[in-house]
């Protein structure tokens, strides 16, 4: 007779209509990834997540909108849960740098993160499974947490790990607390196998990730400059036009990436309390030809004009 309690999932959801949703997401106590990063949404924030606690192993599955994620020394000092995170992408993409290692992820990738080291990356709207393993447990299973920081692998074992965790979340109530040691053992065995059987990153993959990160940093540094052109990027990055365009294939091209980053910057500026800058100043600051150009492209991306979005935020603030 199985007498121990059934496993239960913890649920969370936030929608763009909920003005407190983003705050609730970043302020929930651990286990919650929102507390681990300083995040900047690139579009109206929406997220849903389920969490399964298996003592020293935690499994999250989350859907969230595009945003920037930053984990710096201050956050590490204030909140280090002492774990290895393994992020598996079901849908969406991400790119950035972990420590000094540039990386890119996409569907099917398994990405290792040492939360005691810094990182910065941008993600598209994504669905991910995040596995958190207590550092002593990871080390006891032969995983070098520090050395794995930023490593991205794809392998048959990685695919098996993703499938197993996805199914485990769907059928969590089929298991009891007495099953936790066996479930954790199976998860850890698949993680170790994913590392051992992964093909090493090629030099070309590493160079491409580094070039992509350098290009994104250069674009962000000169987002509002009228001289932010493809010719300038090629010159400063020492890349051909073909090579530059390949870096942004997943983003719809270089110009599309620049336009979206500018729109995200405007969206973020409008979201700041007390911001009443007129549209023509925002257009000038973020590289749009005029207020009409900004309004048209903003509406095409977010479904409302900048003025309407600002009025919506004011209305929400008055309600709350």
Question: What does this entry show, briefly?
Answer:
This protein is α+β, with helices and mostly antiparallel strands. It is 44% helix and 22% strand.
Average pLDDT works out at 88
DSSP E strands, number:
12
Q: Sum up the overall morphology in one term.
A: globular
Largest sheet: 7 strands, antiparallel
Low confidence ranges: none
Instruction: Give the SSE order as H and E letters.
Output: EHEEEEHEEEEEEHHEHHHHHHHHH
Spatial order of the strands forming the largest sheet? 1-3-4-11-6-9-12
Number of helices: 13
Strand content: 15-25%
Q: Terminal Cα separation, in Å?
A: 51 Å
Fraction of residues in H or I helices: 40-55%
Q: Over the alpha carbons, how many angstroms does the gyration radius reach? A: 21 Å
Output the structural class: alpha+beta
Oligomer: single chain
How does the SSE layout of this entry go?
Elements: E1 10-14, H1 21-27, E2 38-41, E3 47-54, E4 57-64, E5 67-71, H2 73-78, E6 83-91, E7 94-98, E8 101-105, E9 110-114, E10 119-123, E11 126-134, H3 135-140, H4 145-148, E12 152-153, H5 156-170, H6 180-197, H7 203-221, H8 230-237, H9 241-247, H10 254-271, H11 279-285, H12 291-302, H13 306-319
Antiparallel strand pairs: 1-3, 2-5, 3-4, 4-11, 5-10, 6-9, 6-11, 7-8, 7-10, 9-12
Folded structure, characterized:
It is a single chain. With 320 residues, the chain is an alpha+beta fold. A seven-stranded antiparallel β-sheet has the order 1-3-4-11-6-9-12, with helices on both faces. A five-stranded antiparallel β-sheet has the order 2-5-10-7-8. Helix 5 packs antiparallel against helix 6, helix 10 runs parallel beside helix 13 and helix 11 crosses helix 12.
């Amino acid at each position: 007779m199985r007498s121990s309690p059934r496993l239960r999932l913890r649920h969370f959801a936030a929608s763009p209509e909920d003005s407190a949703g983003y705050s609730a997401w970043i302020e929930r106590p651990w286990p919650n990834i929102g507390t681990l990063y300083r995040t900047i949404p690139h579009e109206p924030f929406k997220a849903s997540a389920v969490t399964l606690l298996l003592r020293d192993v935690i499994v999250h599955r989350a859907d969230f909108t595009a945003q920037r994620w930053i984990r710096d020394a201050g956050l590490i000092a204030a909140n280090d849960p002492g774990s290895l995170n393994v992020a598996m992408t079901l849908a969406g993409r991400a790119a950035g740098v972990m420590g000094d290692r540039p990386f890119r992820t996409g569907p099917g990738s398994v990405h290792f993160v040492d939360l005691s080291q810094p990182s910065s990356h941008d993600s598209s709207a994504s669905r991910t499974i995040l596995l958190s393993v207590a550092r002593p447990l990871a080390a006891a299973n032969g995983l070098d947490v520090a050395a794995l920081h930023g490593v991205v692998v794809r392998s048959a074992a990685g695919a098996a790990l993703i499938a197993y965790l996805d199914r485990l979340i769907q059928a969590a109530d089929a298991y009891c607390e007495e099953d936790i040691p066996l479930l954790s053992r199976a998860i850890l065995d698949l993680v170790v196998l994913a590392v051992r059987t992964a093909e090493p990153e090629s030099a070309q993959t590493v160079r491409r990730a580094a070039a992509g990160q350098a290009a994104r940093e250069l674009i962000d540094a000169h987002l509002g400059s009228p001289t932010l052109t493809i010719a300038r990027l090629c010159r400063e990055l020492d890349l051909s036009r073909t090579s530059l365009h390949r870096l942004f294939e997943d983003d719809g091209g270089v110009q599309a990436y620049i336009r979206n980053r500018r729109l995200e910057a405007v969206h973020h500026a409008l979201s700041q309390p007390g911001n009443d800058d007129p549209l023509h100043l925002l257009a000038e600051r973020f590289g749009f030809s005029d207020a009409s150009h900004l309004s048209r492209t903003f509406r095409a991306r977010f479904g409302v004009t900048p003025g309407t979005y600002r009025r919506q935020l004011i209305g929400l603030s008055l309600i709350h």
